[in-house]
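Proteins fold reproducibly. Next comes a concrete instance:

***
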Amino acid sequence: MAILCENALAQTQLSDIPNPLIGTKQVLFFHGRTTPFVTPPFGMTHWTPQTRVSRIRVLNYHYGDKSILGFRGSHKPAKWMGDYGHISLMPGIGEVQSMAEKRKLRFSHTEEVSKPYFYNVKLKAKKGNRIGVEMTATERCGIFRITFPDNQEPFLVIEASQNPDFDGWIKVDTAKGEIIGYNADRNSAITGPDLAGFKGYFVLKFDFEIAEFGVWNGDEKTINATEIIGKHVGAWIRPKQGTTTALVKVGSSFISIEQAQENLEHEIPHFDFERTKEETRQIWEKYLHRIEIEGGTEDQRSIFYSALYHSLLFPRQFSEYGRYYSAFDDTIHNGISYNDFSLWDTFRAQHPLLLLTAPEHVSGMANALIQMYEQGGYMPKWPNPTYTNIMIGTHADAVLADALVKGLKGINPERAYAAVHKDAMSPPDGDSLKRWDDRALWTGYEARAGLSWYKKLGYVPVDKTSESVSRTLEFAYDDFCVAQVAKAAGRQEEAAFFLERSRNYRNVYNAKTGFMAPKNADGTWHKNRKSGFTEGGPWTYLFCVMQDIGGMIDLMGGKEAFSKKLEKGFGGIFRYVHENEPGHHYCYLYNYVGQAWKTQQKVAKYRQSKYRNKPFGLNGDDDCGQMSAWYVFSSMGFYPVTPGSDVYAIGTPLFPKVTVRPDPENQSIEFVIKAENVSVINIYVQSAKLNGVLLESPFLHHADIVNGGILEFEMGKQPVKGW
């Protein structure tokens, strides 16, 4: 029987279930703003078809577009952030076209295949000709198989740069059959410091003889020229006559041309497209099998594994075989690094999920954040790839605290404490003189902007610092996380200090209005009650106290009053907005007032209404996997309400059986979740047993999962009250 189960597992191709096109089409607010990336988990360079000229607020790929203008090695993590150090190539036939509007070719989604490990499309050239493009990728490299029509004049255009503020350089070497270059572009440069040494290096190698070549600058092409540097430049080549199948492999690096070549030699030393494709598929199989589901509909399975795919894309690896470029001191270092942390979003569920799905990466991610502090002065909030001052709070604190509290090895608590202590105690330069508006031009890293006021008054005043209410609430939560790191470092007095300061959320609660409210520096309430919030308003942040839920409940009048207020929060338009992250734990707060059945009701509602197996199937912004991580947790049946603690709140499972394998080194350790009688109607937990023992409260601990065991739910269509 065991042999049959193993064979069945081996035959299950989980890597073919995710749909990377979920979230790529905008229909009103139904848009996850995702990109169909081809990459292994946490790949340094992601490869994607490009339908638009990429920039901040413009994604590389939009499902509604009709044409493709290139295939891009991208480092753009989200719509609101920039790409950097990118490279793109585009095939064509006939006259060489360098500009995006002229080189683009139409395509149909009926001739498009998108998988985590593979992408395939047919491009419509002139006179009914088709150009086939297939691509697959490794962590730092990509390989393309391009099929040209017979008896045409094929060409390949390589774009080295597109930004008028940054130079690109490219060189054609026909003797070696390669093209090398770099791209110094950083779309987000205006929100961060100068980086004189930053470049994204690349090398392209071909399995065919180059018959013609040249370089281009904008619309101007120079045949037989081998090298050019400029703001919008590139190169072009023609294969020798009769070439119908062309293989192109591309190596990328942030260290040097030589390192890009080394990366390519290490990862794709051959021109065997199918071999690379299969190797990357097997990597996805390994990771996706760490959460194996049974039952459910085809759509539910696709949504689940698409969400798991999205949650495993970031942060990206930023080291290259023992070395890495640091965008925090503009220097090459020995060691391991990661980048593109969307921390304001991902500390809530995506980073906690990685502790269960990719723990072997988490210590490297945590140490990367500590290294950024040591090299740049603070841990970042949203590195892209350096400081950007995007979003508020210092939620790297939460990532370190969560990993340490949950027992992850490989993080030095003293180094971690030095980093979080700097966040918590050292205001940025000129703090009391600046308002620190969102996405302001770079004047220095803001860290906890308004911290000088927070330390003095116990809150951030609205008349001194923008987004003051949200900052106060998030600083208080971050203080809780600093306390946990202090405990891990054996600093009990410091832990007690920060734990007490984590209750500062009370200082912006207006008992008369029943809301968190903006307060002036003189202690008076601001006249505009909607001022001082980040991406929301008073309802958005009313329940945003994750670190002291019991204290928040008492502050609002006790369990009954709190429950009524929470119900109102879900009852009005734009009160609870699942499309944005601050409220992602709100559904689970009913567990803390003895009304777990309402948590189950709300989780089932938003799980069904906000996620669909369609290109417009993800509401809001996925933001490097946070929306997706909420779905993964909420489908399994539990959620990390308070990162920095070891507690999970139970919700309602979606599938009859889920098997979690949290230890990559010992896959025999399994945490199995069984849900008897679960269905679209039977969403309510009738009873729950952990390892055969009836659960008396709707909570789990991290050790319950990572040590292995069985969580058994009995489901029904009627709520069970009192749990």
